[in-house]
Amino acid sequence: MKSDFVKILVYNYLYEFSLVESKIKDKFMEELEGCNSSKLQNKLLFLHLSAEIGSKFTEDISQNTIKINKLRYPIIVDKFSNYKLKWNLKKRIEFAKNNDLLTDVIAVELPHLENKREGILAYDLLESSIQIRNALAHETFNVTIRRPMEVLSDEKLRYLIIDDSNFSTVEDLRDLKDIYKSALTYYFYLKEIEKLL
User: Fold this and answer.
1) HEC string for 8-34
2) Which of 15, 16, 82, 174 has the most CB atoms at less than 10 Å from its CB?
3) Residue-wise pLDDT tens digits, 157-180
4) Which residues contact 116 (CB under 8 A, 6 or more apart)?
5) Distances in Å between the alpha carbon of 77 and those of 40, 81, 82, 96, 188?
6) For the whole model, what pTM was predicted?
7) 106-147 per-position pLDDT tens digit
8) How many Å apart are CA 7 and CA 15, to the nearest integer?
9) Radius of gyration of the chain from Cα atoms?
């Protein structure tokens, strides 16, 4: 049975993740709307369009089956905000990284919370945060983080928890499972990313 502290930790992480996710998605759409490059907007629409067409079929059709020749069928975007983009956060930040969008967020190197020499790129933090979110939300704790990030020390985590009004209690962190220590670490980094937004 999970302790009250673990339940609060999971709730706080999922809440903070959702908050950051929503703000990034909104900012992504704002940047696309403000972008005067129809080439960039068309690129996004072509990537999104084949998945959209494929979802209308009742049979299972591979994404590779539906291809659109963008040289013959250019799309001119009138008002991009009217277009409902169904991409999740991962696809949006990947597209943003490859097309110089959201640079004031994903390209920022955040200082390590334990004053280590090298900072941590917000993009990498977000990628790993998505995996942690999926593990916590679906209770599948077999999460593999592609680029492992050093988990903050128990002492640092305790200090951050005590200083955070979203936690009413703290328990002995030595007995906490690794997934929860990772979630705590990423929770505090998500709060740093939120400041950028």
Assistant:
1) HHHHHHHHHHHHHHHHHHHHHHHHHHH
2) 16
3) 999 999 999 998 888 888 888 888
4) 150
5) 10, 10, 10, 18, 39
6) 0.80
7) 999 999 888 777 888 999 999 999 989 988 887 766 666 666
8) 12
9) 20
